[in-house]
Amino acid sequence: MERRAVCPGSFDPITNGHLDIIERASRLYDVVHVAVLINKSKQGLFTVEERIQLIKEVTAEYGNVVVESHHGLLVDYCKDREIPAIVKGLRAVSDFDYELQMAQMNNGLTGVETVFIPTSPTYSFLSSSLVKEVATYGGDVSHLVPESVLRRLIERIAERRQS
Ligand code: PNS
């Protein structure tokens, strides 16, 4: 049977930290689903379609990554696609509390397992929100996001500034 896992997140936008986890998951599983969870209360810098497009571009080389959006509970996404494992990166102890809570809640809901992969120390401080903040004020984030994301990020920030 095909071994499947999901890497869920907001991905606004995808960073090298996300990519590191997705790449490592793609070596452990036959198929890795990247699920962009839609959170209506959070206004993103990129639309869900733009995020999906960027993720598709930067994960194409792995050959076993499927990118989709989902509105609702992550456990329902997993149930619909018969995905038994959620893969999450853990950056630091500070991630652990909330991640453990979600893992236990999700397991209690449907029995889905959560597998934690320790983030590479290179990216332990990295988050999409910090990347956006640093880029907004002209800081260099070229080592933190893939090249195509960097280009789109700089364009989007410039557009926002004009409007
Ligand atoms: O990239 P993020 O924003 O840290 O990802 C958090 C995410 C989207 C993985 C988490 O909020 C989530 O799983 N949302 C889907 C809704 C859901 O299932 N909520 C119950 C979690 S126990």
Folded structure, characterized:
With 163 residues, the chain is α/β, with parallel strands linked by helices. The chain has helices spanning 16-28, 48-59, 74-80, 93-110, 128-136, 147-162; strands spanning 4-9, 31-37, 65-70, 85-90, 113-118. Strands 3-2-1-4-5 form a five-stranded parallel beta sheet, with helices on both faces. Residues 8-10, 37, 73-74, 102, 105-106 line the site of 4'-phosphopantetheine.
What is the CA–CA distance across the termini?
51 Å
Strand content: 15-25%
Examine the coordinates and then state which fold CATH places here, giving the name of the CATH topology. Rossmann fold
Structure ligands: 4'-phosphopantetheine
DSSP E strands, number: 5
* Second rung of CATH, namely the architecture: 3-Layer(aba) Sandwich
**Could you report the average pLDDT, rounded to the nearest whole number?**
97
- Proportion in helices: 40-55%
Query: Which secondary-structure class do the elements indicate?
Result: alpha/beta
- CATH homologous superfamily assignment: HUPs
- Indicate how many domains the architecture comprises: 1
Unreliable spans: none
Please trace the helix and strand order, writing H or E for each element.
Answer: EHEHEHEHEHH
CATH class label? Alpha Beta
Gyration radius over CA: 16 Å
Question: What is the number of helical segments per DSSP (H or I, 4+ residues)?
Answer: 6
List strands and helices in order, with pairings.
Elements: E1 4-9, H1 16-28, E2 31-37, H2 48-59, E3 65-70, H3 74-80, E4 85-90, H4 93-110, E5 113-118, H5 128-136, H6 147-162
Parallel strand pairs: 1-2, 1-4, 2-3, 4-5
